[in-house]
Amino acid sequence: MDVYISVGLEGVAGVVSADQVDDRGGGRAYRRSRELMTREANAAVAGAIAAGAQRIIVNDGHGRMNNLDLDALDPRVECSLGYPKPFGAMAGITSRFGACCLVGYHGGAGSAPAILDHTLSRRMFRAVRLNGLRQTETTLNAALAGHHGVPVVMVSGDEATCAEAIAALGQQVQTVATKAAFGAGAAYCLHPSVARERIQSAVQEGLTRALGGDVEPYRPTPPFVLECDTATTLAADYASTIPGVERTAGRTLRFAADDYPTVFRALLSMSMLGELATP
């Protein structure tokens, strides 16, 4: 089985504050966090190998997507780095993968209590909905994997992230709550070594169930109507220039398509243009 692992940073054990995830500033707190991120990625890799994975792709999905320490990363994997890249945190996902794991993920915009909650861009989006249902990065990325017939078998992050994953993907998904948030910038955290042990076990269990045919891909029903509430009207000004994007209110954008990857790409385009509007 080929396994796809998408790795974020906000959901990593021990990460609670904005300076810890600031990949542009590159301060001491961030440097320590990327070490923790890399070690959680390695824990997921160890679980995948224990379950019999033959090829493993690890995709850096945080910020400018160049956070993982390659010298410390398990040498048995291939790593996707850099920004921008097609489909962002899910770059390279195809039907050749037997399963997908989402490590170090965070709650969606408006989740509470949740560490550093946002959906794609806190500077761009206040809320993202698909066919009227609130979305998180977990659900959006799981749907892209599901489009290719790939099930998400494991999600790690804070308690809110895990609850959102189970609510959308079902009890079939293995979750690891690395921390319990007091708010957006404080949490009760597992010791990093304990979090890594649980991640390894959850990945192994999830992949074993996938091999047994017990985990189904997450597939929202088309046609797809995407609605995005933006943080500012200027951000909406920028993103509404994308062909096919309709501005239904001052801070609300709408995009419709029958094909989910097209919707996903439109959402990423809105996010990137909105970031330009709010430097």
Keywords:
single chain; 279 residues; alpha/beta; seven-stranded mixed sheet; globular
Report on the structure:
The protein is built from six helices and twelve strands. It is an alpha/beta fold and 279 residues long. Helix 1 (28-50) runs parallel beside helix 4 and helix 5 (233-239) packs across helix 6 (260-277). The mean pLDDT is 97.
Secondary structure blueprint with pairings:
Elements: E1 2-7, H1 28-50, E2 55-60, E3 78-80, E4 97-105, E5 125-130, E6 133-134, H2 137-147, E7 152-158, H3 159-169, E8 174-181, E9 187-189, H4 192-211, E10 224-230, H5 233-239, E11 246-249, E12 252-257, H6 260-277
Parallel strand pairs: 1-2, 1-4, 2-3, 4-7, 7-8
Antiparallel strand pairs: 5-6, 5-10, 8-9, 10-12, 11-12
Helix pairs in contact: 1-4, 5-6
Q: Poorly predicted ranges (pLDDT <50, ≥5 residues)?
A: none
Category by helix and strand content: alpha/beta
Basic shape: globular
Our estimate of the beta-strand percent is 15-25%
Largest beta-sheet characterization: 7 strands, mixed
Biggest sheet strand line-up: 3-2-1-4-7-8-9
Radius of gyration: 17 Å
Output the helix-strand order: EHEEEEEHEHEEHEHEEH
Mean pLDDT over the residues: 97
How far apart, in Å, are the first and last alpha carbons? Answer: 42 Å
Question: How many beta-strand segments?
Answer: 12
Helix segment count?
6
Q: How helical, in percent, are the residues?
A: 25-40%
